[in-house]
Specification:
Number of strands: 3
Largest sheet: 3 strands, parallel
Radius of gyration: 18 Å
Distance between the termini: 50 Å
CATH class: Alpha Beta
Strand content: 5-15%
CATH architecture: 3-Layer(aba) Sandwich
CATH superfamily: P-loop containing nucleotide triphosphate hydrolases
Number of helices: 5
Structural class: mainly alpha
Helix content: 25-40%
Strand order of the largest sheet: 1-3-2
């Protein structure tokens, strides 16, 4: 039985750590973002919304159009979290301006930080998750 050829594009573990989290393993991506959040804020300070309503679909599919109706029906008074706006935040802009991608780990980290804001405690509509990683167009 022959050994399969190695994939030179796969991340190479160093010291037991994965060096490239863009490998699309949800457990690795979320776990890394979560551990960093716990270290930064402390587990006892992590308070997320009671309800998160995810609206997915292509641009123009009606996510934004239906947000007001859904918010009224569910009794939500906070604005929705629009992923495209989150990707234009100062944190994401710094990454893009440096020529880096706002990858899945960074998107999850930005979202978790946003969800911790007290305004979302009772619930929130999340418009456009998951977002696609992007680079600055400049």
């Amino acid at each position: 039985m022959s050994k399969p050829a190695s994939d030179s594009t796969a991340p190479v573990p160093t010291g037991g750590k994965i060096t490239d989290l863009e490998i699309k393993d949800a457990h690795l991506i979320f776990g890394s973002a979560w551990r960093n959040l716990e270290a930064e804020i402390g587990r006892e300070n992590l308070r997320f919304p009671k309800e998160i309503i995810l609206l997915g679909g292509a641009p123009g599919a009606g996510k934004g159009t239906n947000t007001a109706f859904i918010a009224k029906t569910r009794g939500l008074t906070c604005p929705p979290i629009v992923m495209s706006a989150l990707l234009d935040s100062p944190e994401a802009r710094r990454l893009k301006d440096a020529g880096n991608m706002v990858g899945d780990r960074e998107v999850v980290t930005l979202l978790l930080h946003e969800l911790l804001k007290p305004i979302y405690r009772d619930g929130v509509i999340l418009d456009g998750f998951p977002a696609h990683a992007c680079r600055s167009s400049a």
